[in-house]
Write a structure and sequence with these properties.
9 helices, three-stranded antiparallel sheet, 2 domains, elongated, alpha+beta, Arc Repressor Mutant, subunit A
Length: 189
């Protein structure tokens, strides 16, 4: 293995591991002696510092770690404040559609329709600000009522809830038949 290949291997190891890696482990992984590994890494450290890279290699008690240079932190902070795009899984979309069409709705009603627990889905939709608490039902235990938010309307390009697509009665009947067939299949062994 020549020096360039060894540098590439060390760089890959440090980048992939994320945490500090001992020179002994790197030496074993690259089939080199520790002294050679330490010398190559120290040379790499000098090169990273000279060439104006955004990363550096630091030494921590005989181990080495690749990390960001402190002067790059402001750029990293800028990107971490960019809102993440939320992925709506089939479960979340199913739960959201129930809330949209049945609101205000309790978690128990959502679970009756879906046939499974919906705590995680409802909590995720609240976290994504697509669903919110809309009060309490005047019933024993005073369960929370859930409804969609303005962000829901905005994200789905709706002016109001009346813009939701109308569900045709025959479509509802088809869904019921499919659900009954699926339920029957679960019990046929």
């Amino acid at each position: 293995m020549n020096i360039k290949e060894l540098e590439a291997a060390i760089e890959a190891i440090l980048f992939t591991m994320g945490d500090a890696v001992s020179s002994e482990v790197i030496a074993a992984a690259t089939d080199q002696d520790e002294e050679t590994v330490r010398n190559v890494i120290r040379n790499m450290m000098a090169n990273y510092n000279e060439k104006g890279h955004g990363i550096q290699i630091i030494e921590l008690e005989g181990s080495f770690q690749m990390c960001t240079k402190p002067e790059m932190y402001e750029h990293i902070v800028n990107i971490t404040h960019v809102p993440k795009k939320h992925m709506l899984t089939d479960v979340l979309l199913e739960t959201l559609s129930i809330v949209a069409y049945k609101q205000p709705v309790t978690k128990l009603e959502i679970e009756r329709i879906r046939g499974v627990k919906s705590d995680h889905a409802v909590n995720k939709l609240i976290e994504y600000n697509l669903v919110c608490e809309a009060g309490r039902l005047d019933a024993p235990g005073r369960p929370i009522l859930f409804a969609t938010t303005e962000d829901f309307l905005r994200n789905f390009g709706l002016g109001s809830l009346s813009d939701l697509p109308e569900i045709k009665p025959e479509t509802v009947e088809d869904f019921k038949n499919e659900a009954e067939e699926e339920a029957q299949l679960k019990f046929d062994f």
